Amino acid sequence: MTMRKFLVSSFWFLVLEGACLAGGFGFNQEQSLSLSGQNLFSAGITSDSGSYSILRQDRSGITLDSARAGVSSWTCIGSNLGPCVVDCVIKCNAIYDSGSNTNYDHGGIGVAYNNANNWSSLVMPNTASGGVDIRDRDNLGTEHGDDTGNVGIAINHEYRIRIDYTNATTSVSNSTINVWDNQSGTQLVTNKVHNFFSNCPTNGWLSFHTYGSSWTLVSCAIYKADGTTIVMAGPQLWAGEFGVIGNGEVGDGKLIKDSHVVQVCSDGSNTSNSSWVFDDSPVGFKDGTVVGFLTIVSGRGGGILFRDDGSGHAYYFWYDGNNAQIRLFKDPASPAAIVDGPSITLATGTEYPFTLIARGSVLSFTINGVTQTVSDSTYPGFGTIGFVGRESVINFRDVRVLP
User: Which of 104, 110, 141, 148 sees the fewest Cβ atoms within 10 Å?
Assistant: First the structure.
């Protein structure tokens, strides 16, 4: 039995190297990415969200869905932010209200969220009014608007938002806001200076918010205040339903042990099946390198999935303790061996460094100094990377994806 699973509970810190601000970031574009292993996205919706709220991810991006009229939904990204630049692309999928509340059906990104009743510089395209709602809410819970007029915001259309958040040390804290039609490139809001209203927070969390509507965060990048030094980019969340078991957040076999370690279970524990588990990330490449550390906690073994096209076709190098070998397989939907590599024995409970390199048809995997190199051109194209486990519990620490 083969089961595909998705990490359900956290963001990983991604660094996008050599990125350009123009035009936003595509979800599965070929980018040079570095994955540090930090879990920076909060696990699911905040406690401020309505009970119907849904957070999920597919290959189109991260969707935050109010699911009902009049329901407010929130999720927070990253740590408490200082001066920074946020550059994202979002799209409205649906609105649920009718009548008097319709004009509040908006969604977007904010840079200084403390809680649902206290935040600043929340920038929300509004498909009902056609404008961009720019809002602060002070510490008394009063909402203040600095909205634009009708600039043609429409449903099922991508918009790029850039917020230059200065966190000025004067009596007000400023942000400069730009909005583009991401499909045509037309600029809809140009260098709008937003002075935070009195008693509104001057720092807080980066947040994604919807009200009475469903929005998808197609991409999101955070820069230092210079606007060029990348801090993190993505989207990075592998999202779905999750619960809490033991000392970590878990769902379908994925246990978050701490900010650096994720655990893949394929031994029947933590809701996993006792067979293969393939855990795709939203990060991908055609040619690239994956490095990190692997520990076999118990069981047979596991490894790294790469060039996964989402239709059952991919490569994966993995350590098979039953054979005491490094093995290259293909096709998660129907696992098949390509070649068995050199003999190696990995001890249970010991952490080993690994490196996977894919360059055209030349594929190699090194763990604990032992390398398997294979020439195979079955799947030369772009695809996602991920984790593999087979009848085991595997820890992956500080995994990075490099050019």
Answer: 141
